[in-house]
From TrEMBL:
It is found in: Membrane. This is Glycosyltransferase BC10 isoform X1. It holds the Pfam family Branch. Its main location: membrane. Keywords: Glycoprotein, Glycosyltransferase, Membrane, Transferase. It comes from Solanum pennellii. It is a single-pass type II membrane protein. InterPro entries: BC10-like, Glyco_trans_14.
Amino acid sequence: MKKKSSAAMAMAATAGMSVRNVLWLWWKLLVLVSLTICVLAFLKLQNYSLSDSELSSSTSSISSRSRAVYYTGNPKVAFLFLVRRNLPLDFLWGNFFENADPGNFSIYVHSEPGFVFDESTTRSTFFYNRQLTNSIKVAWGESSMIQAEKLLLGAALDDPANQRFVLLSDSCVPLYNFSFIYNYLMASPRSFVDSFLDKKDVRYNPRMSPYIPMSKWRKGSQWITLIRKHAEVVADDDAVFPVFKMFCKRRPPLEASKGKNNIKLQKQHNCIPDEHYVQTLLAIHGFEGELERRTITYTEWNESVTNMEKKGWHPITFSYADAGPVQIKRIKDIRNVYYESEYRTEWCRNNSTLAPCFLIARKFSGGAAMRLLSEGIVSPFDASSIMNLTP
């Protein structure tokens, strides 16, 4: 009986040890799997920008470029045109550059991939072959808009003479001649970036934290003018942009054909990247004290309501009738901008001196641009001289 009892106890002890060993092995396996998942998730987040084929072909390559730190020659203004395809107001800009010293400016155009500016596509020789060769397909309200801006800045930064960088759309027009705009920009050591807090804004996505703190979230106009230091920060950024690309996306528009599905679609988080990216990036880097927190590009807004849209603001397109001397003088006479969300009046200054707020305006039709020329807004010009020129 004693031997049987001892054997039974030994078997029970062995069985107990086996169960404990199995449980211990399973526990170690569970911990190992959990750690592996955490490590992989961390590496994926850290390397998101490197795994993105489009980003690696643009911002990552830009980051590795070596650029001149100091430049003592004649400074230039880089005009960066972000266009859909061609440049419909090329005749006006051609006249604008015609009266400028070629050593004071450079031109870069981001158009659709494969589009070439030559004698068959533009009426101005100033735009011949000024398109980027690494352009991408751009969609409004998507991160591709930011990526195109970064490509333009990256290309312009390759020329150390470029010291000011002005982003323009295909509907922008100059309100002054080249000499005035050049002197205005060169006189200021600051960038002109419309940047403000919008307390009513719900575009910030908490999932952006901690890479983009809510305290640094800003909103403003896409149309920026940067000094070289800030242009380099935007062009070389490969940390904040991937977070924008992942979490700041435009909500799909309302479509009557989708019926009740619109309700589900409208529950998605809504964010327009190009209205936040540069402002937020510069705030994260602590550069807000180096900005004139306003844009030099005027846009006239109209509040409208349609059956399929919520109340919103939309830019007005200037027609021939809207581009007369009285209307243009009204824009040029503006000396301050009021930001309702911050209860702030931004008095327009240029190197601490009160100055006109706007040097450029949008959105102008071809007829409106033609009137600017015929009225001599840019410079004296005979409009009939280009009537027979077709791109």
